[in-house]
Amino acid sequence: MEKRLKRYLSDLETLLNQSALTRAQCQSARADLLVQIGFFQHERLIHLIVTVTFAILALLALLGLALSENIGFAALLFMVLVLLLPYIRFYYLLEKGVQKLYDYYDRLSSCQA
Fold first, then answer.
1. Helix 2-16 crosses helix 23-68 at what angle (to 10 degrees)?
2. How far apart are alpha carbons 29 and 106 in whole angstroms?
3. How far apart are CA 15 and CA 36, in angstroms?
4. CA nearest 55: which of 34, 90, 22, 84?
5. Contacts of 70 (CB under 8 A, 6+ apart)
6. How far is 55 from 16, CA to CA, in rounded Å?
7. Tell me: the pLDDT tens digits for 67-108?
8. Which of 3, 20, 31, 77 could lock onto 61 through a cystine, CB 3.0 to 4.6 A?
9. How many other β-carbons are positioned within 10 Å of the β-carbon of residue 36?
10. Residue 12: helix, strand or coil by DSSP?
11. Domain ranges of the chain
């Protein structure tokens, strides 16, 4: 998904750097962009749910470790953190990418024939 987002952002940048876009090109690109924004927003929502779930699991494991001093909670905390950090990074990339898509949509909305 990260490669797809980066490729789509690159394609949009190339399209918007063209000197003269027709009204039809702007409308077509804007319609396609709305569909893509929907896909990426859905992906962002799913990853937000997963990231928050893993953050809650990490807090519960930390709480369990603090209350019982059981080594199993330390292992669980380590495993959850190993998964949580890449989820946070990926969610950040999705969030940043969707915000950039919004900017491109605004630029396409103001494009003149």
1. 150
2. 12
3. 15
4. 84
5. 64
6. 39
7. 998 899 999 999 999 999 999 999 999 999 999 999 999 988
8. 77
9. 19
10. helix
11. 25-109
Sort residue 18 into left (φ over 0), alpha (ψ -120 to 50) or beta: beta
Token reading at 18: 């063209």
3-27 pLDDT, tens digit each: 999 999 999 998 888 767 788 888 8
Q: Whole-angstrom Cα distance, residue 113 to residue 110?
A: 10
Structural tokens at position 1? 């998904």
DSSP single-letter state for residue 19: S
Report the alpha-carbon distance of residue 13 to residue 101 in Å, rounded.
Answer: 10
Amino acid type, 57: L
Q: What's the pTM value of the predicted model, to 2 decimals?
A: 0.81
Contact 35, 64 (CB under 8 A): no
In sequence order, what are the residues at sequence separation of 6 or more whose Cβ sits closer than 8 angstroms to the Cβ of residue 34? 105
Q: Which residue bears the tokens 């690159």?
A: 10
10 Å Cβ neighbour count for 84? 18
